[in-house]
Amino acid sequence: MKLELQGISKAFGSFYANQDIDLTVEDGQIHCLLGENGAGKSTLMNVLYGLYEPTAGHILVDGKPVVFRGPGDAMAAGVGMVHQHFMLVPVFTVAENVALGAEATRGAGLLDLEVTRQRIREISAKYGFHVDPDALVEDLPVGVQQRVEIIKALVRDAKVLILDEPTAVLTPQETDELLDIMRQLKAAGTSIVFISHKLREVKAVSDVITVIRRGRVVGEAPPSAPPADLAAMMVGRPVSLTMDKAAAQPGESTFEVEDLTVTAPNGTKAVDGLSFRIARGEILAVAGVQGNGQTELTEAILGLQPHVSGSVRLEGRELLGRSVKEILRSGVGFVPEDRTVDGLVGSLSVAENLVLDLYDREPYARGLAMRPAEVRANAARRVEEFDIRTPSPEAAAGTLSGGNQQKVVMARELSRPLKLFIASQPTRGVDVGSIEFLHRRIVAERDGGTPVLIVSTELDEVHALADRIAVLYKGRLVGIVPAGTPREVLGLMMAGVTPDRAEAAATAREDALEDNGSDYDGGAL
Q: pLDDT tens for residues 249-273?
């Protein structure tokens, strides 16, 4: 199915989120819409999916004009969409979620889930999804939940599938699996609109790339285009894709974790006897596949985990047993892995979110009363300093793009004196221009003498920021290695291989490849 957008514009009052956009998706093509967060990509796809009515322009399917007055019209025409934030009911089964809105019935209007189960099994077998129709959605990993969303679209015979930032919540392994799924869908004749800002993924899977910036198409490029050129098109200026930072000058080790253990509700050890230190002016990056204790580690430090033993000391002061407020007030800055759940109050304004942990202190409060003028003045400074793209500091934080929400959280945490800075997945769902900016701010905090703990599933980010790298596997510390440790060694360590064995295996593989081509089977492990 060929899909065309001609002169599409979408205005919200006097603000144009999209303006005069032309886009053609050919039959059986993966067409990437590349751009920064807030560039208008998702708005454009919401127009295409019938969630928004265009202010101007036309949509054509196989050369014929169509009007989508809602998602039902779009689905009837063969257009499906997988949103960045999944539209699933957690307490329903996979089959129940897939059936919603397109329920098969039998007899006197009774729901017939067996028809849906069979379709799920057929699609799952065809594409290797491995999805159980009777599994509860809340029990499924994020990557499998995304497959359920794709199945929902395919059950409705989608010929064009819109994937809105599909890798924003996935681990690297899940991302690779998704890219393989996209290739299979393309081979089966499905056209895909791939919305993203991640250059590595875009280049790996796209047939053609359209770049959008501030609501307008600024160019089209093949996937062979140099990453630096694509980044410059996205941002409107040259962007450094590598983090140039001076070597760390570590001082005294002021943050110490000893034999830290976190016991999960089921009795297992989510964190199992971790010990490490971080010096002033040093970044320790924690690497590992999501779900190996990283979340529990950072939450234990902040006082959010109930069943914790061991010791966590900052400048000689024990943090375990203290309240979250006490820990934050002791000089700990914390950026959580899920900004929408733990980092922001979406209904509050940007200005209010920028003082969430200081709202009751001078200069933002006097006695029991807040001082709105000071809150507004602080917001104006931080919006400019961190390039937070918002219609107004009074706009609700939940209305901002993901990247700009992350900037709000980072601005709040980095705008007060710190004795320790912790950031979990600091650039998840953030575009290349914002990544460059946020990385610079993290390194600047290090250079100011603050111990920094970074948790990331992105090895590129770990390499860019780390002075030392700690690898977690099943809640235990596999090892702490230098920043320059090769990606392949880190990958083996993330699977539980000790540093010595991982390095030996990587070296053996390189030697075997030099001698025998690609026949080496990894036998050193």
A: 999 999 999 999 999 888 999 999 9
Nearest-angstrom CA–CA distance, 69 and 288: 45
pLDDT score recorded for residue 520: 36
Measured distance CA(421)–CA(442) in Å, rounded: 9
CA dihedral 507, 508, 513, 516 (to 10 degrees): 160
The values of phi and psi at residue 330, to 5°, are: -80, 0
Task: Decide: 392 and 367 in contact? Cβ < 8 Å.
Answer: no
Cα separations (Å) of 403 from 16, 33, 459?
Answer: 19, 17, 19
Q: Are 339 and 426 in contact (CB under 8 A)?
A: no
Are residues 207 and 221 in contact, defined by beta-carbon separation less than 8 angstroms?
Answer: no
Domains of the chain (ranges; CATH) run: 3-235 (3.40.50.300), 242-331+417-525 (3.40.50.300), 343-415 (no CATH)
Question: Facing residues of 105 across strands?
Answer: 111
3-state secondary structure at position 148: helix
Nearest to 127 by CA among 154, 104, 103: 154
| Residue that has been written with the tokens 């007060």 in this structure | 416
- 461: helix, strand or coil: helix
Which residue, 403, 358, 354, 397, is CA-closest to 376? 354
Give the residue among 474, 453, 473, 177 at the shortest CA–CA distance from 337: 453
Q: What is each CA distance from 40 to 136, 237, 302, 307, in whole angstroms?
A: 34, 18, 36, 44
Output the 3-class SS for 233-245. Answer: HHHCCCCCCCCCC
Alpha helices in 26-171 (DSSP H): 41-48, 71-76, 94-99, 113-127, 142-155
Counting other chains too, the contacts that 84-87 makes at CB distance below 8 Å and 24 or more residues apart are 84/42, 84/164, 84/165, 84/166, 84/168, 84/169, 84/402, 84/429, 86/145, 86/146, 86/148, 86/149, 87/149
Comparing CA positions, the residue from 405, 471, 468, 484 lying closest to residue 438 is 405
C-alpha separations of 278 from 91, 152, 283 in Å: 42, 47, 7
Q: What is the dihedral of CA 28, 34, 38, 39, to 10 degrees?
A: -100
The letter for the amino acid at 131 is V
| Residue found by looking up tokens 């890219």 in the block | 179
Please name the residue that has the structure tokens 């992105």: 458
Distances (CA, A) of 205 to 32, 129, 185, 202, 460: 9, 19, 12, 6, 19
* H or E stretch at 183: helix 172-187
Percent of the chain clearing pLDDT 90 (strictly above): 60
Least confident range of 50-54, 253-257, 364-368: 364-368
- Give the least confident one: 66-70, 71-75, 176-180, 374-378: 176-180
**pTM, rounded to two decimals:** 0.68
Structural contact between residues 289 and 177, judged by C-beta atoms closer than 8 angstroms: no
CA distance 376 to 357: 15
pLDDT in tens, 171-208: 666 778 889 999 999 999 999 999 987 888 899 999 99
